Amino acid sequence: MVFTGIVEEIGKVGSLYREESHLLLSILAKVVLRDLHIGDSIAVNGVCLTVCSFDDRSFVVGISPETLRRTNLEQLKESSPVNLERALSAQGRFGGHIVQGHVDGVGTIRSMYPEGDSLWFWVETNKEIAQFVVEKGYIAVDGTSLTVCATQDCSFQFMLVAYTQQHVILSQKQIGDQVNLEVDILGKYVKQFIKQD
């Protein structure tokens, strides 16, 4: 399963509830419901989740304890906006970068400021994630494929153009909010190969 970090639509949380020992998330959507099947994967704020059920207005996914530990999904509430992307089909265009939907951890927004019609962000994370973040490299932030503009210690900077601001949830965030981070998988493989030498 692979995603591209090109968000297809902004959905809305219907409910977050427990059914026996399972935590389930219901999301209102339109675009991602097209040609949807039970068992399909949808990235919700960058987290690859499996569709358990759906109707003509919403779909339901289950969330594991490990997913809750690594992501910001537990902070979602009713009506929270979420980035949604279906897994890439064999016929699909590869518009972003390789995103697995396996979130590495979270970061915290430390600053947001406009420049013309663009919006700049600085996000702080931990050393384990920061070691894979490089200037002009890719990173997925809440499932959005972005180019890193600068790095400093355990922080990195990126920018949203006007179009992207209108089509992802990042521009609705505030300083202090947490975002899901997935680093470029190529950097992880390089580190593993170097470790083996």
UniProtKB/TrEMBL annotation:
Q: Which residues form the Lumazine-binding domain?
A: 2-97, 98-194
- UniProt-listed InterPro entries: ATP_synth_asu-like_sf, Lumazine-bd, Lumazine-bd_dom, Riboflavin_synthase-like_b-brl
Keyword terms = Repeat, Riboflavin biosynthesis, Transferase
Q: Which PROSITE patterns match?
A: LUMAZINE_BIND
The protein's matches in Pfam families, at most eight in alphabetical order, are given as: Lum_binding (PF00677)
The Enzyme Commission number assigned here is 2.5.1.9
Which NCBIfam families does the UniProt entry name for this protein?
PRK09289.1 (NF006767), ribE (TIGR00187)
Q: What superkingdom heads the lineage?
A: Eukaryota
The reply on keyword Transmembrane is no
Protein name as annotated: Riboflavin synthase
The role this protein plays is: Catalyzes the dismutation of two molecules of 6,7-dimethyl-8-ribityllumazine, resulting in the formation of riboflavin and 5-amino-6-(D-ribitylamino)uracil.
**Any Gene Ontology biological process:** riboflavin biosynthetic process
Quote the pathway field: Cofactor biosynthesis; riboflavin biosynthesis; riboflavin from 2-hydroxy-3-oxobutyl phosphate and 5-amino-6-(D-ribitylamino)uracil: step 2/2
- Gene3D superfamilies assigned to the protein according to its UniProt record, in alphabetical order: 2.40.30.20
Q: Name one GO molecular function term.
A: riboflavin synthase activity
